[in-house]
Amino acid sequence: MDELTDLATLEEEAFAALRGAESEDALNDWFSRYLGRKGTVTLAVRRVGSLPKEARPAYGQAVNQLHQRLEAALTERQKDVKRAALKAEMVETTFDPTLPGRRPEVGHVHLSNQTLREIYAIFQQMGFQVYDGPEVESDAYNFELLNIPAGHPARDMWDTFYTTTPGYLLRTHTSPGQIWAMREYAPEPIRVILPGKCFRYEQVTARSEMMFYQVEGLVVGKNITMADLKGTIVAFVRQMFGQERKLRFRFSHFPFTEPSVEVDMDCVLCGGKGCRVCKHTGWLEIMGAGMVHPVVLRNGGYDPERFSGFAFGMGPERIAMLKHGIDDIRYFFSNDVRFLSQF
Ligand code: PHE
Which residue is closest in CA terms to ligand 1's atom 5? Predict the structure, then answer.
């Protein structure tokens, strides 16, 4: 049976050629040569029809099996060639699979927010709730209702950015939140802190930014006195800066509080002896405060004959600066991770 001998020769030749093919291109060539449309194995399959009847079954079976064996061998060979190519590439590029992966950069809470959270935690212990007011305010809430009428000289201290809608501006302090809270809760007692962003149209310097945070405090109720104000602020400052801190309440003026005070604490750096940070006074100013002005109480819906209250306002960036010895407020919002990652 000649044709079966031919098949055996073809098989030997095809397998030898397959072993010799070492690239994808070589395998493609091999495929066209043996299994392609005009490949020798394909032609051998077609030969079945031209054989005498009695020779067909044996030949047909043999050639089909050969075709299948070659196809299976090609698939295997393709895998080997791919694996070899990958191995060669790893050696060439000195890829080291044992190296650790790259760590993704993970951020962390911004120093302003860290400070805000510390402040919340301290006031939370004293029964204060957090109350949110809007950053875009009406002139009425930011000034008028806080006893700062148009043309009042105190407005110079709180110059701001105005929106294109007349009468609306970016709030210059969190104090308008006092009105929001009072109008929501009157005549119930209030104990809230009001954190948030404030804006000022000002020269940006090491001590003043045009955007910064404030935390306002507001307590309204029956028989609230200056002693409550002092006790609350002393408790806060000592938890924030250490139990040994001394405080000083200096007479001051805000249109929305009466009497008004400026709160100083002894310098955290020199302990009151006088240094560069406290400008050799021994004291650091940390907040403004006072008893809520009767006009403001009335604007909030409380009868000043029956209710009284106190309020305070502080800047968490300033608190953080004193706590961490930071000498320029502009670092907070200039987005330099070399600064931010330190805290
Ligand atoms: N709103 C004042 C400021 O921005 C601070 C303050 C708040 C003073 C509450 C007294 C009472 O300077």
Answer: 313
